[in-house]
Amino acid sequence: MKAYQYLINIKLKSTAILLFIIVLIQACSSTKYIADYQSIVKKVTIDSVDKKFEEQAYNYVQKDLRPASKFSIQVPLYNLFNTKNGRYKTNDIKPFGTPPAILDSTLVEISRTQIQKFLKSKGYRQAEVTSAIKVANKKAEVTFSAKPGPAYFIDKLTDSIPNVNIRNLYLANKAGVSHLHKGMQYDEDSLTYEREQIYRIMKENGYFYFLRPYVNFDVYGAEPTSKTNKIDLNLNVTEPAEGHKQFNIGYTHMIIAPNPDGFPDSVRYKLSKDTVNGIIFTDFSKRYRRNPIVRYDFLKQGELYDIRNENLTYDRLYELNIFKNVKIDYFRRDSTSNKINAVIQLIPQKVMSNRIEGEVPFNGGTVGFNLSNTYTNNNIFRGAERFELQVKGGLQSRIGNGAKPFSDIYQRDFSISSSITVPRLIIPFYNPVLGGNGMPHTTFSSSYIFALQKDVSVRRIFINSITYDWVETKSKLHSFTPLNFEYRFGYLDPNVDAQTVLNNLYYSTLLGRKDLTLGMKYTYTLNANKLNEYRSFVYLRAGMDIAGNMLQGISKLGGKKSDPANNDPAKILGLPFNQYMRPEVDLRWYKHLGGERQFVARLNAGVAYAYGNSVLTGIPFEKQFFAGGSSGVRAWQARTIGPGNYDRGLLRSDTLRKAFFGLDQLGTMRIETNLEYRFTVAKKFFGATLKGAAFVDAGNVWNLRKGESILLATPTLDEQTVFKLNRFVQQLAIGTGVGLRYDVQYFVFRFDVGLKLKDPQFTGSDQWVIGKFLSGAREFKNNYNATHGPDTYRFLQYNFGIGMPF
């Protein structure tokens, strides 16, 4: 049924226009709030710097000196909330926007010095930078003029590495890691990179006590007074008094604290002395079995110390989600030993938790509530197995015409689900090697869903599945469900009107069907680990859901004849089974625009195609697609767009429209696209960051062929729901809007306002409903409500949610 989001049916149009006017006025008047001796920096220019270094050089201009973009509303917002009596406030500063860049000669000098140092570090050893300030009408322009002089290039590369083993190790890896080569322009960043790479190589090859300061460079000919622009570099790896030694891992002692408070100083505990495979395991909490924990110690006895194995141990033990703190220390038995013993101290976190969530979705015609309780146990079998049990229920009621809330309940939903997730791949006759890039999981899940639509139907669904999740690399995730079993049965209300059934035959068939589904799923995800980073990348989530092929094969082997095209499908255990394929893709392009600004373009598309045993009965109700909602076309509620040009107003019967009220508008094909610009409004806003977004969304759902329509008995409307390339643009729903994201680091609370631009349920120019919103909105809505009731029309859609929309 319709997944209503939080909705607020209020008028914001006048307020929004007024706020826009105020901000526009504020944008032109910043100078009036400063003292007569002050000026606002409107422009900063850096002349005569190589183009490839321009952006980096600008970063050395002090932040308080950088003017805001001409199109930014940050300064106008700041002016709106932080001025009083014609001046900027000096206290009680509100966390909105950013202040204008006020000229400060000290900051100009610091910026000049930093830019000059930067140019010298990039090989322009004779670089000189001067600054000039031009002021007019309390507006300032700052210009930094550079005389970089000649660039210096590396002429000779030598090294002084007295330790033969280290020198050989460096030379063996040099080709793959070094940025230094003869003839390159001198760059101090390359020297820093070389030092870091040598340090990494040493720490990966047993040199436990190796430090970064051991790596340094002698630079010859780099003096600004030098007559030549050539530099000689000599790499030094200095030797400590005891020399550089490689170390092997001795034994590892894993110690688990008695409780989440850690290890008390005043109590002594008896450590275990039993060593198995080089690991001593002591659990003072008595909560954990040994093998599931020590499995993720990658510091193996006898192997060379490798910092990658140390980091891998940290990562996997944290990913078990049962320890709140992991600490690894090392010690040597004596100064002559080449073995280091590891001590892994683990502090457990709380095992059990319970979360209650609720919402009150409502709009002009309905009100309801959803309530859920989720119990979690992160260590149910003492091996970091995560057990989760969720119970969820909700009601939806019609309101209006004087009816009291919940006096006309038309929808009831209830579900109970449980899952057990084990932190490894449980595969019969095969023990896969644990991935070094992420924690693998096996999940066993089961759920029961009950949905009642008053005077229409009751649906019950049992779902059971086994899923394997593993990590190929940090950016490549795989999820495979080899077994997904679903048993669904529903029935129509005995009192449902016969004419309603005939006019809504396909929908009635979907809701009243009894069948089995046995299939498998696979999903591949690329770059999910980058979603919270400000960088440019492509995100992909592609999946395939296939069902029925195995049962079809079993049915044929049994020799039973069937004719699905003539309503005689093959059956297993007395029930027909579903046969379909359902590919879906979510493709996004994230473009970093500097700072905390980002542009996102997204395409979400999917197809559900029934064949074989389901050629007549079609795709199951729950497997069909919908459009709209807080993560789709946000100017519409979820499940209220399409399919195609479907218009419920063409149903002339008030009784029929009332029966259809609240029923999902579904299709077997979906295309949605989103364009969103993201930016920061306020860095410190009630203890969090307030971010903003502006977006444009478009999309719809369609049916792939005739007969899949929710109005099978109405051929004209059935035709309007089918996807046709020549009608694609005509059938698109388009909306725009703005949103706020309240980012408290671990959660993002989201509020979006979507405005309908183009509505495909209408025809011709009437589809561009934005014209009606700007002129004649009240009359348009009254006419719509009269012909489509009990449905009502809203130009604005308000969406609340947790997390980013995509």
Automatic annotation (TrEMBL):
Keyword tags: Cell outer membrane, Membrane, Signal, Transmembrane
Compartments, as annotated in UniProt: Membrane
Pfam families: Omp85
Source taxon at top rank: Bacteria
Protein name: BamA/TamA family outer membrane protein
PANTHER family documented for this protein: SORTING AND ASSEMBLY MACHINERY SAMM50 PROTEIN FAMILY MEMBER, TRANSLOCATION AND ASSEMBLY MODULE SUBUNIT TAMA
Natural source organism: Pedobacter vanadiisoli
Bacterial surface antigen (D15) domain boundaries: 485-766
Broad class of where this protein is predominantly found: membrane
Isomerase as UniProt keyword: no
